[in-house]
Amino acid sequence: MRTTLELGKEIGYAKLSIEAVAARAGVGKHTIYRRWSSKGALFLDSLLSLNKSDLDYPDTGDIVADLRRQIHAAMDLLDRPPVGPLYRALIGEALLNPQVAAALNDHFITPQAEKTLARLKAARDQGQLSPGFDLDLAMDILSGPLYFRALIVQEPLTHEYVDRVIEALFTGMECRP
Amino acid sequence: MRTTLELGKEIGYAKLSIEAVAARAGVGKHTIYRRWSSKGALFLDSLLSLNKSDLDYPDTGDIVADLRRQIHAAMDLLDRPPVGPLYRALIGEALLNPQVAAALNDHFITPQAEKTLARLKAARDQGQLSPGFDLDLAMDILSGPLYFRALIVQEPLTHEYVDRVIEALFTGMECRP
């Protein structure tokens, strides 16, 4: 899996193939195919093997500061080279291959969303957010604009942009009638 | 292009090929390759050939009602079969092929965003939104969660969900200090 990532960083996802990974790793391609059915599946596991402890949420008691810190860290990892272009390619692969989509959701998207929800829920329980605060919608309003800019508009994300999204979310949600 | 869409609806994007389109249309594949360099490019033009007048914004003077009507219509077209799965596949292709990404942005995403911005700006000029209302961010907070659910979480979108996003946006943005 380390070989897959190294090669991906060197030549990009489009040129990556199971044959090329096998050649670089010095194993037969069937050794790889026995464990991974496609390039997308191999690549997903390789990206997931990265240390993602940076993506855990701190809990300093200040929900806004903690969200900022975690989302800045996630963006620095997932939106910048070398991982950024590979992560975008993986999502492209997931949109074309339902098996990759299911694995990506089960092993990365859903667990990450659960961490965000848990941190928001703790803040609500501590009275930092109003009791009616809509946790699921908040999750989407935090993640959605970032994915939209990264995947659709394809512009680089900045910390300042993240801060504007967070501000809009909290100012908005707390002012609900 | 009509043949491409017909075939796409029948067999899905993954199985679609320029050869299959040529065979169905009764032309040589070189006839198609002369105009489109890849399956992604052909498919993009085919989707763009659909009548998209439903995606124009009404201006009844009520910004919330007009956004709701337009976004519901866009969602009914882009998220539901038969177009929905094909549109998601096209975005997957765009993430793997920068030429398709550039064409998709130039011919669809940017013009649509400009329509949304124009409608929001008209509302701001009419005093329906505060002078400091952040049009670009509003655009992302409207589109982002919808794309996030459709592409990443891969759950079906509902009109009720759109309404929650719109409500969060306006309650939020208008309550800013």
TrEMBL record, chains A, B:
<feature type="domain" description="HTH tetR-type">
    <location>
        <begin position="1"/>
        <end position="54"/>
    </location>
</feature>
<dbReference type="Pfam" id="PF00440">
    <property type="entry name" value="TetR_N"/>
</dbReference>
<keyword id="KW-0804">Transcription</keyword>
<dbReference type="GO" id="GO:0003700">
    <property type="term" value="F:DNA-binding transcription factor activity"/>
</dbReference>
<dbReference type="InterPro" id="IPR009057">
    <property type="entry name" value="Homeodomain-like_sf"/>
</dbReference>
<dbReference type="InterPro" id="IPR001647">
    <property type="entry name" value="HTH_TetR"/>
</dbReference>
<dbReference type="GO" id="GO:0000976">
    <property type="term" value="F:transcription cis-regulatory region binding"/>
</dbReference>
<keyword id="KW-0238">DNA-binding</keyword>
<dbReference type="InterPro" id="IPR011075">
    <property type="entry name" value="TetR_C"/>
</dbReference>
<dbReference type="Pfam" id="PF16859">
    <property type="entry name" value="TetR_C_11"/>
</dbReference>
<keyword id="KW-0805">Transcription regulation</keyword>
<dbReference type="InterPro" id="IPR036271">
    <property type="entry name" value="Tet_transcr_reg_TetR-rel_C_sf"/>
</dbReference>
<dbReference type="InterPro" id="IPR050109">
    <property type="entry name" value="HTH-type_TetR-like_transc_reg"/>
</dbReference>
<feature type="DNA-binding region" description="H-T-H motif">
    <location>
        <begin position="17"/>
        <end position="36"/>
    </location>
</feature>
<protein>
    <submittedName>
        <fullName>TetR/AcrR family transcriptional regulator</fullName>
    </submittedName>
</protein>
